[in-house]
Amino acid sequence: MNRSAPVYDLLGVGFGPSNLALAISLAEASEQQGAQLPHLFLERQPDFAWHPDMLIPGSDMQISCLKDLVSLRDPTSRYTFMNYLHAHGRLARFANRKTFFPSRAEFDDYLRWVARHFDDVCAYGETVIRVEPVVEQQAVTMLRVTSETCAGIRKARYARNLVVAGGGEPAIPDAFSDVAVDDRVIHSANYLSAIDRLQERRGAPRRIAVIGSGQSAAEIFMDLHARFPGARNDLIFRSHGLSPSDDSPFVNEIFDPDFTDTLYARPRAERLKFLQVFQDTNYGVVDLELIERLYALLYEQEVAGVSPHRVLPLSEVAGVSRGNDGVTLTRRSVIDGAAEETSYDAVVLATGYTRNDMTGVLSGVRDWITGEEVDRYYRLPCRAGFRPTIFQQGANEITHGLSDTLLSVLPQRSREIRDALLAERAAETSGESAA
Ligand SMILES: Cc1cc2nc3c(=O)[nH]c(=O)nc-3n(C[C@H](O)[C@H](O)[C@H](O)COP(=O)(O)OP(=O)(O)OC[C@H]3O[C@@H](n4cnc5c(N)ncnc54)[C@H](O)[C@@H]3O)c2cc1C
Ligand SMILES: NC(=O)c1ccc[n+]([C@@H]2O[C@H](COP(=O)([O-])OP(=O)(O)OC[C@H]3O[C@@H](n4cnc5c(N)ncnc54)[C@H](OP(=O)(O)O)[C@@H]3O)[C@@H](O)[C@H]2O)c1
Predict the structure, then answer these.
(1) Judgement on whether residues 191 and 241 belong to the same structural domain of the protein
(2) Does 434 have pLDDT greater than 70?
(3) 338 and 381: one domain?
(4) Does ligand 1 lie within 6 Å of residue 409's CB atom?
(5) How far is the CA of 112 from the centre of ligand 2 (A)?
(6) Among 330, 348, 366, where does a domain finish?
């Protein structure tokens, strides 16, 4: 062990909303209980940013701004969205708008404002590339966390505990695995910067395909229409049609913080069934108002006698090839297998995200981890002799429900993780003093 490298009680991978909410919780514990837990979060982006390449002009939040980083736990906290509005002199005008759903740009600005209060506990511009066990007398006493800056400089730090909240990685359909490096094939996670780069290098695209039928696909389809007037855009997806997300009030209760206990207590098979039944609250679905705008656009084109855009349901991409004149997709009907080829100047994969820390950042300690499902307090199960606790946020839908990847439970989850950490430390300290 390199004794000169710093040792922390807690290191965090990522500084998105999940670990930002945890930073607030830890600061509260320090202020209110005097609990000191030296910690640092490592974030690969150069500064705080919330899905920056999807800050599409006109896009709004999908949950109430009352479900910010802290309000549902402590509405009197200085880190509420309301206090952000107040601090920026916009509270009254926000109220006049009669909405709980601010733009994504405004919520990003709120998150950045909170994050600035925590600059001292985040190292930006560092990607965690490896987590390794430190073995002393056959026990793992700590974790060695290696990060790399964009200049290729590597840094090692040690952690008594780790919290992983790295979000999702772009899901790339198999048919695109060979062409994913082509600048004409863009995942929605990189949309805004990639489409700008493409335009700069190759000029405005005239024929564009968007794959997928979720919120990202619909937002991007509409943005492409506004951005490249005259372009012919196809929206290609496997399902029957664009379906609205169910955000009705009774159903919305599945995202309430209290619901986590209800779901966690159920047998695994029931939890899996639950995820399936409520998929349409979050995945492969679109906000109804956006569906209506998209439909109206297609109708207006029909009235005008031009129909440059097409919505192509029940279609899968069976083949992809690229040439100088475009990326050619072989589109196959999922009903009768009929195939058709079309060439595009750009293809946007709005195909969602995968979440698997075991094959990613935790692969170096995988042998010590005995299962992929966390306990109620988000701790991964580990072999005897492995002393650090590894907390996982955002990859626990199977145990904690659909709210796990969203903002809804952050105030409660961050308190639970913090309290679990403090309880473990208190137990260690009392064990040491008894010995
Ligand atoms: C376009 C879009 C809009 C959304 N809108 C909503 C919404 O309105 N409401 C809602 O509830 N949810 C929404 N979501 C869901 C979203 O997952 C949550 O809002 C939220 O971002 C989850 O926070 P997180 O911190 O867990 O993950 P993320 O926000 O993804 O943050 C993870 C962070 O970890 C960093 N990171 C990853 N790997 C490493 C590494 N190896 N080393 C260092 N840093 C790393 C990333 O750079 C990132 O900053 C949206 C998702 C998307 C994609
Ligand atoms: N304004 C906002 O707040 C906003 C904006 C964008 C996204 N979001 C959030 O971000 C999260 C992700 O949304 P998303 O739209 O990016 O992803 P998503 O909801 O997971 O949708 C992914 C889409 O890609 C399709 N797909 C996946 N794999 C495919 C494959 N191999 N071949 C063809 N199609 C494939 C899926 O089709 P199938 O259904 O056929 O599998 C689905 O239509 C959600 O929580 C969403 O609410 C929020």
Answers:
(1) yes
(2) no
(3) no
(4) no
(5) 25
(6) 348
Ligand nearest to the CA of 240: 2
Residue in the block written with tokens 């919120």: 215
What's the whole-number mean pLDDT along residues 211-225? 98
Q: Is the pLDDT assigned to residue 63 strictly greater than 60?
A: yes
Which of 67, 174, 216, 235 maximizes ligand 2 atoms within 8 Å of its Cβ, making it the mutation to test the pocket? 216
Do residues 388 and 160 lie in contact, with contact meaning Cβ atoms separated by under 8 Å? yes
Any residues with Cβ below 6 Å from ligand 2, and which?
54, 59-62, 104, 171, 173, 188, 211-217, 219, 237-239, 282-284, 316, 350-352
Work out the average pLDDT over 395-418. 97
Instruction: Report if residue 132 sits inside a domain.
Output: yes
Confirm whether 266 is domain-assigned: no
Average pLDDT over residues 45-52: 98
Rounded to whole angstroms, what are the CA distances from 49 to 20, 105, 186? 11, 10, 20
DSSP H helices in 228-337: 249-252, 259-264, 268-277, 288-303
Q: Which two tokens stand for residue 429?
A: 């300290």
253 backbone dihedrals φ, ψ, rounded to 5°: -65, -20
**323 with 359, same domain?**
no
- DSSP annotation string for 225-238: HHHSTT-EEEEE-S
Among 302, 328, 348, the domain-final residue is 348
* Distance from the alpha carbon of residue 216 to the mean position of ligand 1, in angstroms: 14
Q: Which of 72, 405, 413 to mutate to test the pocket of ligand 1 (most atoms within 8 A of CB)?
A: 405
**Domain CATH number, residue 207:** 3.50.50.60
Tell me which residue range forms the domain holding 210: 173-245+282-348
Which of the ligands is closest to the CA of residue 191? Answer: 1
119 and 241 co-located in one domain: no
pLDDT, tens digit, 9 for 90 and up, residues 156-165? 999 999 999 9
Residue 258 lies in a domain: no
* Tokens coding 130: 């490896």
Average pLDDT value for residue range 338-351: 98
Number of domains in the chain: 2
